[in-house]
Design brief:
It is a single chain. By secondary structure, this protein is an alpha/beta fold. The protein has a single domain, classed as Vaccinia Virus protein VP39 (Rossmann fold). It is 30% helix and 29% strand. Strands 3-2-1-4-5-7-6 form a 7-stranded mixed β-sheet, sandwiched between helices. The longest helix has 13 residues. It starts with a helix and ends with a strand. 38% of the residues are buried.
Amino acid sequence: MDAAAWDARYAAAPLVWSAGPNAFVERDLADLTPGTALDLACGEGRNARWLASRGWRVTALDWSPVALEKGRRLAEESDPPVEVDWVVGDVLSAPLPTSLDLVVVAYLQLPAAERRTALRRAWEALAPGGTLHVVAHDSTNLREGTGGPQDAAVLYTAADVLDDLGTEAGLEVVHADRVERLVPAADGHGPAGTAYDALVHVRRR
């Protein structure tokens, strides 16, 4: 999907994603000392707004102006309102902030070569001691899980993320594995299904 297609998708519903942060983002990052953060491919900005509410200075970047406008409105309507720097841009080419304390990449599903470029750019934007937190639909979700993209070319694993980042000495792995996430039934009444995500939490020494 290109930016125009995402604009159309975001315009078609009040919210495409949940209003609150991703469960793994909230679980893993709640205890970090606030600093400067980038929410890369932020969509409607649910993680960016949550980080800002906890005292982070956040840049939220996405190539869909429609998604960013929804995020900006929700940030202004928060109680209390939160401040986020909303930036329209392509994760593969837009200038990124530097010397960051945190970069969040949530469900950025790209083919391997583009994914590697985006993740390397995210890593290089970190200051020493900074954290990169990646959560994505896992490759195994296609045959074992529920929901998510049905194109194997844009799914990946925690091992893929580590390979993308390389084995340089400055990478400290806190967590890199497949995790489970419960997904409500489509009709709202049946049993929840299980989705499988790739989760990588690393620090830059």
